[in-house]
Design brief:
Structural class: alpha+beta
Strand content: 5-15%
CATH architecture of the domain at 97-194: Roll
Number of helices: 4
Helix content: 55-70%
Number of strands: 6
CATH superfamily of the domain at 97-194: Head domain of nucleotide exchange factor GrpE
Distance between the termini: 144 Å
Length: about 200
């Protein structure tokens, strides 16, 4: 038994002795590798080639930055153009709907004018007409009301000629059908009777 203990102790000693050898081995290998490599001073450096490479890289960098700036500007222009087209399309849609509803407004006005004072429908027609006029007001729709003013072909269609005694020459003497504008756009020209010049 003692023999085994002594042997185990001896083995321990051998293992402990071997460990420092292992630790020293990488250091020796590193020193040997350094000795094989030439010194940094011995490697020739081509500064002209490095400078040319750096100049080329800077030029390429400048090209990429210019391309990025142009792409960003193109995208900003596209976005602005797209917003403008979208806004114009929305406004066109509003004008088209407002123009399509004008006959309904005309018929409500005719119904109100023909309804008798005692008619139970008169108050309902009045309320509906007021609601329709309120909706048009919110959209910025206004009546072209130029009775007694000089005829303007941009706003009115002359469908009849009046008599000289109806007013000043070239003026609107009667509105046969109301015209409407939405902002600066004419939804429907007014149909008018004009005093001849």
């Amino acid at each position: 038994m003692k023999r085994h203990a002594h042997k185990a102790g001896k083995e321990k000693k051998t293992v402990m002795d071997a460990e420092p050898i292992k630790d020293q081995a990488p250091e020796a290998e590193a020193e040997a590798a350094e000795a094989e490599q030439p010194a940094a001073e011995e490697v020739p450096v081509d500064t002209a080639a490095l400078q040319a490479s750096l100049t080329a890289a800077e030029k390429k960098n400048e090209e990429y930055l210019n391309l990025l700036a142009r792409t960003q500007a193109d995208f900003d222009n596209f976005r602005r153009r797209n917003e403008s087209v979208r806004a114009d399309s929305y406004a066109d849609g509003q004008r088209n709907v407002a123009a399509a509803m004008l006959p309904v407004l005309d018929n409500l006005e005719r119904a109100l004018a023909s309804a008798g004072e005692d008619s139970p429908l008169k108050s309902g027609i009045e309320l509906t007409l007021k609601q329709m006029q309120g909706a048009y007001e919110k959209l910025g729709v206004t009546v072209i009301d130029r009775l007694g003013e000089k005829f303007d072909p941009n706003l009115e269609n002359a469908v009849m000629q009046g008599a000289p005694e109806d007013g000043e020459p070239g003026t609107v003497c009667m509105v046969l059908q109301k015209g409407y504008m939405m902002g600066k756009n004419v939804l429907r020209h007014a149909m008018v009777k004009v005093v001849p010049d």
